[in-house]
Design goal:
188 residues, alpha+beta, single chain
């Protein structure tokens, strides 16, 4: 599921079914429900037969992401790659997409690339990269307890900027913040 969702100029049904071309109608609907997409689909003029426009231009970013997640649910891959899947969404859409992603990741290996740490908080293993180098590895609780770069950035995202002034990493070798900072998480 990429940051920039790829949709085709066909119908909502066709875009979901692209995950498994021989899928039955009930499987497409179940995938849409699991992706929190069914309700908005039913509100469109033609439901699952609504034309989305080239690249999904007739849909919001959150709606496009949920269709991409429905496609992935229908495909049922053993390994899932999520590349900034919630980065361009408003808070309401992010919550719906995150809920759908949580269901999608159940029982499979997932590799998540994210700057929004809410996406990776539940991962069993988080690898923190700074300027292409691994600087921390652990689950959310372990990384928070280490009071390193991950804990600092998590605090900035979820507790406000006042925390940044109090940041003193336990390990002085922790590199300075960079624009190239990425988080990769693996969940099994």
């Amino acid at each position: 599921v990429p940051q920039e969702t790829i949709l085709f100029g066909g119908t909502i049904r066709e875009n979901i079914a692209y995950g498994r071309l021989n899928a039955a109608e009930d499987e497409i609907i179940e995938a849409a429900k699991a992706a929190n997409a069914h309700n908005f689909i039913m509100e469109t003029p033609d439901g699952y037969d609504t034309i989305v426009g080239e690249r999904g231009v007739k849909l919001s970013g959150g709606q496009r992401q949920r269709l991409a997640i429905a496609r992935a649910i229908l495909k049922n891959p053993r390994i899932l790659l999520l590349d900034e899947a919630t980065s361009a969404l408003d808070s309401e859409s992010e919550e719906l997409v995150q809920d759908a992603l949580d269901r999608l990741m159940q029982g499979r290996t997932s590799v998540i690339i994210a700057h929004r740490l809410s996406t990776i908080k539940i991962a069993h293993r988080i690898v923190v990269l700074d300027e292409g180098c691994i600087v921390e590895i652990g689950d959310h609780e372990t990384l928070m307890a280490q009071n390193g770069l991950y804990a600092h950035l998590y605090s900035l995202q979820f507790r406000g900027n006042d925390v940044a002034r109090d940041f003193t990493p336990d390990d002085e070798a922790t590199p300075a913040l960079s624009d190239d900072l990425n988080f990769t998480a693996r969940s099994v």
